[in-house]
Design a protein that fits this description.
2 copies of one chain form a homodimer. Chain A has 190 residues and is mainly α. Chain A has helices at 8-23, 30-36, 51-71, 78-95, 97-105, 112-136, 142-156, 168-188. The interface between A and B is large, with 43 and 43 residues. The structure holds a DNA duplex (30 and 30 nucleotides).
Chain lengths: 190, 190
DNA sequence: GCCTCACGTTAGTCGCCATTAACATTGACG
DNA sequence: CGTCAATGTTAATGGCGACTAACGTGAGGC
């Protein structure tokens, strides 16, 4: 065997994420995750402490990926930064709808101890957006901006539910237009 | 005892919905649902066929409530109809965030046989929106409108994740402005 | 040629939980 | 009163599934 597969660990994480997205954390057994990568059952314990550790790692990775896309935006002027954040998020949501689903739905299955860390990353990501939007519209109350950003995430993350109706490029364009318009509307209210 | 509680059945459904929203379908035991209404465990089987039947009924009820709010909109002119749909949805989302959560997350735990019925109601609701929006913007492709409507739902349903940052009235206003602006942006693209 | 490490395997074990059984209680109603 | 229907209760029962044990095996290093 000599691991012709790049990295068994990563392979398992991908398979688990896809299964969790489809049937939910409790709807998938360790055995099934193993089967999805060609080993069976308890082999996973050679790579992860347990099922929950798997989920934790998946969620941390997702949050990290989203945030890192935003880190490159930090140096730009606000308008450009917002574009980078927005395109990055859309790219990710259209490219990995399963991950978006897991990220949205499964936090409560992460053991209490690790949940703080996941939440911290999520909060950081939100604050990246909030910071950029506030730079663009300094007069707007922070609470309102935060609410608007959450709403935009909801809009962008709806992707996994409306798959394939539009081509990917058009879908991206529609989402971008909607996100920008709704943000503008939110911050211009006061 | 003589049932001073209006209806045990409804009471159970409410408690179950709240618990499912908080910890997910599999994160809640029958025993806990019973405890939440002051009876314990298998008493629920006097009212429901089983745990899944409970969830099914909850989801059907939610979809029904959303749709019915929209049914009154049918007779109005498109612009008014959209307002009625939008305000109805916002009202519901802000008033029952738990139900929105359950509605979004738990469909896959409904037994195959009943899932069709739930999905049918959901589709009907989406089509109410799509119909109204297409009346308002006849030049826009149906697929694009559908995608936009899904995105708006995502926006409106983000509420349960951004609770309490804003007062309810302001939150409603923000959501309404964002939804209208994003819809307009989506349909004006082509 | 051995030792050991990395990775797997199969066969338990154990606990949780939905569901069912068997047995009250109580109020309406004749 | 006695009966019935509605509604609960507490003890099984049974299955599923996470996790652990005990046991290969093959590849490098020495």
């Amino acid at each position: 065997m000599t691991t012709p597969t790049r990295n068994r660990r990563a392979e398992i994480l991908d398979a688990a994420a896809a299964l969790f997205a489809e049937r939910g954390f409790h709807g998938v057994s360790i055995e099934e995750i193993g089967a999805a990568v060609g080993v069976s059952g308890p082999a996973l314990y050679r790579h992860f402490r347990g099922k929950e550790a798997l989920l934790t790692e998946i969620l941390l990775d997702i949050s990290g990926r989203l945030s890192s896309a935003g880190a490159t935006a930090a140096a730009l002027d606000p308008a450009e930064a917002l574009n980078v954040l927005l395109r990055g998020h859309i790219e990710f949501a259209l490219g990995h709808p399963e991950l978006i689903r897991v990220h949205e739905r499964e936090l409560h299955n992460v053991p209490e101890a690790d949940r703080r860390a996941v939440r911290r990353l999520q909060r950081l990501y939100v604050e990246e957006w909030v910071g950029v939007v506030r730079d663009l519209h300094p007069g707007c109350a922070a609470a309102r901006v935060r609410a608007a950003v959450h709403a935009v995430f909801g809009l962008l993350n709806s992707t996994p539910r409306s798959v394939g109706e539009l081509g990917r490029a058009e879908m991206a364009a529609v989402l971008e237009a909607m996100a920008l318009a709704s943000l503008r509307a939110a911050v211009s209210g006061r």
